[in-house]
Amino acid sequence: ESVIKLEKIVKNYKVGTQIVRALRSVSLNINRGEYVAIMGASGSGKSTMMNVIGCLDTPTSGFYELNKQDVSHLSDDELAEIRNKEIGFVFQTFNLLPRNTALENVMLPLVYAGVKKQQRIEKAEKILTEVGLADRIEHKPNELSGGQRQRVAVARALINNPSILLADEPTGNLDSKISEEIMQLFAEIHRKGNTLVVVTHEESIAMHAHRIIRLKDGEIEADYVNPNPVY
Ligand code: ADP
Ligand code: ADP
Fold first, then answer.
1. What is the Å distance from ligand 2's center to 231 Cα?
2. Which Gene3D superfamilies does UniProt cross-reference here (predicted)?
């Protein structure tokens, strides 16, 4: 069952009189439950692709179907709504609210979704427990280690049951031991049936995914099953 279907996606940026061709006719299908790493050198188009997949930006041309719905030509408001419902984001910089506790950070997407307070708290406590932070619920980001902050961010990303967990260099700010722990958490999330897309330039991170897509100069250079995923 297709979750992400890109068809001949082109993304051009205008810079003065120059046109930068960031994605040059990218076609791709990702099914529910897949664990995909998108790799490529700096400038190859990874961020642009993540922005399109994450409904943060629309393509110049081509089609994007998310859960069989065409999202290639939506307004910013419509895109924002799809994003909140369908996509859980994890960033290198965690992007947590500094004045709020782990619990409050994780509950926030449920506030936008209109879930009642008691249910928000129960759901957030449950998911924080699942990511191993049962005893850190009242901690604020600056009272947590880097790895714990990223766990909070993963919990927040998952709380709405998104169709895709989309992670951009999720271990970029973590040392290698903590990075492995986060990738172990991703493996568990994958085992539970979630669809994961991880954008990274790090080979050691990509090797956890079950499918590897390599971008080069805005095109897919390779797309193959990882014969030997870690975990
Ligand atoms: P990566 O994430 O792999 O480093 P990007 O998607 O950021 O690649 O960039 C792909 C190409 O598009 C690069 O040549 C980059 O300079 C260009 N680019 C990216 N974002 C913009 C932008 N907002 N305006 C103009 N050019 C951009
Ligand atoms: P790590 O070495 O894994 O990065 P730290 O040494 O930063 O972790 O933190 C160790 C433990 O102490 C963590 O479990 C974290 O929750 C807790 N902790 C760290 N900083 C604070 C703080 N300012 N206030 C309360 N607890 C903290």
1. 27
2. P-loop containing nucleotide triphosphate hydrolases
Output phi, psi for 224, to 5 deg: -150, 160
The reply to whether ligand 1 has any atom less than 6 angstroms from the CB of 201 is: no
Ligand positioned closest to the Cα atom of 19: 1
Report the greatest alpha carbon distance in the chain: 55
| Ligand with smallest separation from the Cα of 144 | 2
Determine whether 218 is exposed, middle or buried from the number of CB atoms within 10 Å of its CB (0-12, 13-18, 19+): buried
* Closest ligand by atom to 140 CA: 2
Judge if the beta carbon of residue 44 lies within 6 A of ligand 1. Answer: yes
Tens place of pLDDT per residue across the chain (231 aa): 999 999 999 999 999 999 999 999 999 999 999 999 999 999 999 999 999 999 999 999 999 999 999 999 899 999 999 999 999 999 999 999 999 999 999 999 999 889 999 999 999 999 999 999 999 999 999 999 999 999 999 999 999 999 999 999 999 999 999 999 999 999 999 999 999 999 999 999 999 999 999 999 999 999 999 999 998
Name the closest-CA residue to atom 21, ligand 1. 13
Q: Closest Cα partner for 92 from 162, 50, 16, 153?
A: 153
Which of the 8 DSSP states describes residue 56? Answer: S
Strands, sheet with 211-216, edge to edge from the N-terminal-most edge strand:
87-91, 164-168, 196-199, 35-40, 211-216, 219-225
pTM for the model: 0.89
Nearest-atom index, ligand 1, CA of 23 = 10
**Distance (Å) from CA 167 to ligand 1 centroid:** 18
* ipTM of the prediction greater than 0.85, yes or no: no
